[in-house]
Each structure stands twice: as C-alpha cells, then as structure tokens.
Design a protein that fits this description.
With 462 residues, the protein is α+β, with helices and mostly antiparallel strands. The protein contains 13 helices and 18 strands. It starts with 10 loop residues before the first strand and ends with a strand.
C-alpha cells in the first residue's frame, strides 16, 4: 500500500560556521546531550559533524545514511545537510535504534520500519531532493557499474536514469512525486552503460510536512539475484558450493563498506588530530577492507564466468571512450600512489564490438595493476591503437617488469609473480582474459625485468 512513512519526518538542527550547535529540536538535542554536548558547544556526534563540514566545503546540500552510537544501541539515521551563509541546517530522520551486533529484524524480533523493507535489497543507493536533483549516490556504485558518480551530484535524476513507461504508458516515479508516496517498480536504463535497473524509493518530508525528495535504491536487473537462480544457471565451481559467491557478496559487502568508510574518516582525522600510530592503524584497516572487498568482487565474477551458460553480449562500443572512463575511475588511486595516468585524448575514437561494462572492467583491472606496480612519480600510458581487423588499448607502466617465464602464469587462477607483495587475489588477469576472449578479443603481455610491463587489450573492430 502506498503510504507516507511518518518515521521519515525529519528533526531539525542548526550548526554555525564553526561547527557549534546553535539550536535543535528536542529529539536531536537529547541525542546531542547524551553524547556530551549542548547548544553553544561543538556538535559531539562525529557522523553529523563530518557531514556538516562536508556540506560547507562543497557548498551543496548532501544527504547520507549514517549509523551513530547511542548508549548501548546503534541508531540508523538519514541526514540531510544544507549549507547557507550562516552555517548548516541538518534534517535528521529514520531513527531506527537497534542493539549493537544483533541479527536483522530489530530488538526482540521487532520489525523494521516499512521503508527499510522497500530499500533493503537494492544493489546500491541514491537520493534526490524535491526537484529530483541527485544529492547522493552510494560511493562505490560508479566504479562497480561504469559511471562517474561524483560528476552527477546536483544533476537532474534523468541524467543518471533513462526512465521507462509502464504498461499504461505512465512513469511510476512521476505519479509518486505527485502523491508523495513510496513506490517500487520504476524501470530505467543506467545512462551510458546500457544496463537495466528497477528503482524503488521512499519519500522524505520536511518539518512542515512538505515533500523534500526521495531516498531510493537501484536493483540491477541483469545481475543474478538469488542463490537458487545461481544453482539453476547450470555449471558449478569445482571448489565452491552453488551460489556461494553471491551469498558471500551479500553477507560481506555492506559491513566491509562501513569498515572502509569509518577507517578512512579516522585516517583523514576529520574529527580532529589523532596520534600518528592510530591514523596508521586506520589506514591499514581501510587497505585490508578494500583488499577483502576486491576479493569478494573477484569471487563473484569467477563464479559467473565459469558457468557453462556464461555469455557476453556484443554491442557497438567506443573502446577509446571506455579507456578514458577507466582511467578516470583510477585517477584517485593513482594520485594516492603519486602516479600519473596519460589517458586517450578526447578526440580519439576506436569503434569496436564488445560489452561496455565488461570492457570497462577489463581496463579498470589493467590500469589498476599498472598503477599498483608503478613507482612513486611514475607514469601509466593508456594508448588506443588500430591493428588490422582489430582495435586495441595498450596499458604500459614503469614498474619492475615481468620475466618471460612468468608471463603465461600470471593469467592463471590465483597466480601472482610475487605473493609477498601487496596486491590483489591473483584472479584479476585470469578473469580479464576470459572476458576479453568471450568478446572475441584477447589480452597479451610484453615485458622484461626492469623495463615495465605492456598489456594489450584487443577487441574486434566495428
């Protein structure tokens, strides 16, 4: 039934330019006082304080789902921070309290709010304001599904999703905006990727009961969703039970993402100075979390590509454009490693036949490896090239190179040249070559010790 969830009515607060709480409605003020703060003092809830500072720094309204500690409970909140000349207005809703580390479903078996059920099983989250401008996209969604999430903040929702009409010729999201109700079932295409999604969202209202936007999720329709569907798909991994990787992904992704985000906040000292050893610990935790999350991604892909019915759909793509996108997705990691990426020029074009998402995945892996093994101050070259009836992208680095005897081995499962080095799972190149060959192409390597590595990703020319 379509209803407005009163749990989403926000509780308001004001924070000045110095981060001090200047006023708050009773429920939020009680939380602040339990955390040791009060009106006139710095906001003592780290998650709220960090969001207020970020909104001021970016100069735009930002919405996030956060979890705060409140006595013996964890409280899930939805927070919108809107900056102005005097400070920041915080609108806090949700308020789902649960004992730390309990099983899903709430304390004593209590049910979660109705909106949690609508949004619980999405693949990634998005949020929009009353004018349907994007205010939040789950941080890892862009890299996972092939779009630039940061560039879309503040853009109309239609810039991200191409909405589809239902059987009656209507757009469910438009009807939901008019009625200010929860909806589930808006079909759309994720622009620039060709991937289909189903959108679900619950409305938000301000302190006057006015519509303030949507908190929503995207369900990826071309993904395998349930363990029984994995089993029905056919082939089974020799060493893993049916659906194991899918279940592992669902069990680990959200807690790992939270661990990484919190560790990054600690390492960046967003709440104030920390002893160097603690920031180092936090950095190590974030690195370990990213490594585990990458392993989960690899296992899910491994299970998919080794099914007997695995196919890659061919479509017209511009391989040079895919290479530019992949380089953009790796830009932050390269900057952290003090490595520069020389990507294809904007006018370069390589018409090819392949699967956009899978080609992007291959190039993200190749460029990511090049960045990982390049020395500080090094350069990674990403070069498009035509080669007869094929087109290719060459990814070259200035790393220590790969000996001839190891060049075949690095494409095998779980194989790495030096297992003592910090790196991936040993699955990336195996998966990438399988994907390239499934698209009618290949990956080859040309390298020598001390001379860097040169990987060539080929696809059929269009």
């Amino acid at each position: 039934m379509n209803v407005v969830d009163t749990a989403m009515i926000p509780v308001m607060a004001r924070v000045d330019g110095e981060g001090r709480l200047t006023g708050a409605e009773p429920r939020l003020l009680d939380l602040v006082r339990r955390a040791g703060g009060d009106v006139g003092a710095p906001l003592p809830v780290p998650e709220l304080a960090a969001l207020a500072r970020l909104a001021v720094r970016l100069g735009i309204a930002i919405a996030r789902d956060v979890t705060v500690a409140d006595g013996g409970d964890d409280t899930d909140l939805t927070v919108r921070a809107e900056p102005d000349a005097e400070g920041v207005t915080l609108a806090v809703s949700g308020w789902y309290a649960r004992p730390t580390m309990i099983a899903p479903g709430g304390p004593d078996g209590a049910a979660q709010p109705a909106t949690d059920y609508a949004l619980a099983d999405g693949d990634w989250r998005w949020e929009a304001d009353a004018a349907l401008r994007i205010t939040h996209i789950q941080p890892d969604a862009g890299e996972r599904y092939g779009f630039d999430a940061d560039a879309l903040l503040g853009a109309p929702l239609g810039r991200l999703f191409a909405l589809a009409q239902d059987n009656d010729g209507d757009l469910p999201i438009v009807s939901a905006v008019a009625a200010r109700v929860l909806y589930d079932g808006q079909r759309a295409e994720l622009r620039g990727t060709g991937r289909e999604v189903r959108l679900s969202a619950t409305p938000r209202v301000d302190d006057h009961g006015r519509f303030a936007g949507f908190a929503g999720v995207a369900h990826m329709l071309d993904a395998v969703d349930a363990p029984e569907e994995v089993a029905a798909a056919g082939a089974k991994l020799a060493s893993l039970p049916d659906g194991f990787s899918t279940q592992l992904d669902r069990a680990l992704r959200t807690p790992l993402e939270r661990i990484i985000a919190n560790a990054n906040s600690m390492s960046a000292q967003v709440e104030g100075p920390l002893a160097p050893r603690y920031t180092d610990y936090a950095g190590d935790i974030a690195t370990a979390g990213r490594h585990l999350l990458g392993l989960v991604d690899d296992l899910v892909d491994l299970e998919a590509i080794e099914r007997e019915d695995f196919v890659v759909h061919s479509e017209p793509i511009d391989l040079a454009d895919v290479a530019r996108r992949a380089a953009g997705l790796m830009a932050v990691r390269a900057a952290e490693n003090q490595v520069r990426i020389d990507k294809p020029a904007s006018e370069d074009a390589l018409p090819a036949s392949g699967d956009f998402r899978r080609a992007l995945q291959v190039l993200v892996n190749l460029i990511g490896n090049a960045v990982r093994y390049s020395p500080p101050g090094g350069m990674v070259w990403v070069r498009p090239q035509r080669d007869g009836d094929a087109v290719c992208v060459i990814v070259a680095d200035q790393g220590k190179g790969i000996a001839p005897d190891d060049q075949a081995r690095i494409f095998e499962k779980f194989e790495r040249v030096d297992s003592s080095e910090v790196g991936g799972s040993g699955l990336g190149l195996y998966i990438s070559r399988r994907l390239a060959r499934a698209m009618g192409g290949d990956i080859i390597v040309d390298s020598a010790p001390g001379e860097g590595a040169r990987f060539v990703f080929r696809l059929p020319a269009r």
